[in-house]
Amino acid sequence: MLCAGRPDPPYDVRLASCGTLKAVVQWSPGSDNNDPILQYIVYYNTSFDEPDQFIEGARVTARRQSADVRLKPWTNYTFSIIARNSLGESERSAFTPGLCTTLQMKPYRNPEEVCSVSRGADQLVIVWQVCSCFIGCFRLSLISPYTTRDMCHLESDELGLVFGPRTIVQSFRC
Question: Cβ–Cβ contacts within 10 Å for residue 101, how many?
Answer without folding.
Answer: 12
